[in-house]
Write a structure and sequence with these properties.
Elements (H helix, E strand, L loop, with lengths): L1 H26 L5 H25 L9 H25 L3 H12 L3 H13 L4 H25 L7 H10 L1 H14 L6 H25 L3 H5 L1 H25 L5 H11 L4 H9 L4 H28 L4
Helix pairs in contact: 1-5, 1-9, 1-14, 2-8, 2-9, 2-13, 3-4, 3-11, 4-6, 4-11, 4-14, 5-6, 5-12, 6-7, 6-8, 6-12, 9-13, 11-12, 11-14, 12-14, 13-14
């Protein structure tokens, strides 16, 4: 149990360290609001697409492919997203806050948390299935985020316009390019792949620094109720639904353990950047990211302990 806590803590600690650095840069007046806006735009338009492409292109897809499990995970993701949407429509008045809250509820930080937690919990044999599911779920996260944030952006809903924005979204373009490169078995020379990897590795730290510099603690009070629900929804309700359904359907071992990561990981770092770029409530997105990351060490270990006690893995 303590080992699982430590691996979760090690995955989460860099998040807070980089956020604190960003806050320090803001207090020292090293970054202005205009500079933050421009850098955040560059991260969204350039770094995140490279990150999506590189993670998919370099992934190991040698693990077992389980079609029924894939269908189950996608169905659970849509169910969680639907429940969050219903709650937001019934309880949240501000349209921009609705989009940020729904995104916080379902969209997890799989890139940071997925592989290290699963490797520690289930061993190297779990990495194949984990990689496959990350390559499927993460692009789906982004497609849903574009749709949700665009719908709740305000104005008249235009399906054709939303579809165009999905296809033009930098994260979707990066993921699609990675998938095509894998399917076509393209061999990218190391001289090109290395700088792509360097840009990809810089995306998350840059986004966290910007978020820390942009975050105001006064916004916690203004968004407190929605932050609380977003964190509870992400760390308890979402994994609770998926794990209960998976256990009842007979999933055990790696497939069941992977549900903890897919549905119980803290909010995705890119959720803040996307919320800011798409005129959503970025302060709410940042609050959910910070506090879900803080408490995820406890909740992930709690889910692991519960299902180990049940003999599920």
């Amino acid at each position: 149990m303590s080992e699982n806590f430590m691996i979760a803590a090690k995955a989460v600690f860099p998040i807070f360290f980089l956020i604190l650095l960003g806050m320090g840069a803001r207090r020292l007046r090293l970054l202005t609001d205009l500079e933050l806006k421009h850098v955040n735009y560059a991260v969204f338009q350039v770094m995140f697409p490279f990150m999506m492409f590189y993670n998919i292109y370099t992934a190991d897809f040698s693990g077992a492919w389980i079609p029924s499990y894939f269908v189950f995970c996608v169905a659970m993701l849509f169910l969680v997203c639907l429940l969050a949407t219903v709650y937001a429509l019934l309880t949240v008045r501000d349209s921009q806050s609705r989009g940020a809250l729904i995104q916080a509820f379902y969209r997890g930080n799989l890139v940071l948390m997925g592989l290290p937690v699963m490797q520690n919990l289930m061993g190297n044999e779990a990495l194949g299935l984990t990689t496959i599911m990350l390559a499927v779920i993460v692009p789906l996260y982004n497609i849903l985020a574009v749709v949700i944030l665009e719908v709740f952006r305000g104005g008249k809903m235009q399906p054709v316009l939303i579809l165009k924005k999905i296809l033009r979204n930098p994260l979707i373009i990066g993921a699609a390019a990675g998938i095509f490169a894998v399917l076509l078995q393209l061999r990218i020379p190391e001289v090109f792949l290395k700088p792509v990897g360097q840009v990809a590795s810089a995306a998350t730290p840059a986004a966290l620094l910007i978020m820390g510099a942009s975050f105001y603690f006064c916004s916690i009070h203004e968004n407190l109720r929605n932050i609380v629900f977003g964190v509870i929804g992400k760390l308890i309700i979402s994994p609770g639904i998926a794990l209960t359904a998976g256990y009842i359907l007979g999933y055990r071992g790696t497939p069941l353990a992977l549900l903890i990561v897919i549905f119980g990981a803290p909010c995705a770092v890119s959720s803040y950047t996307m919320a800011q770029q798409m005129d959503s409530n970025a302060e709410l997105a940042a609050g959910c990211l910070i506090f879900s990351s803080l408490f995820s060490c406890l909740t992930i270990c709690g889910w692991i302990f519960l299902f180990k006690q049940l003999g599920a893995f």
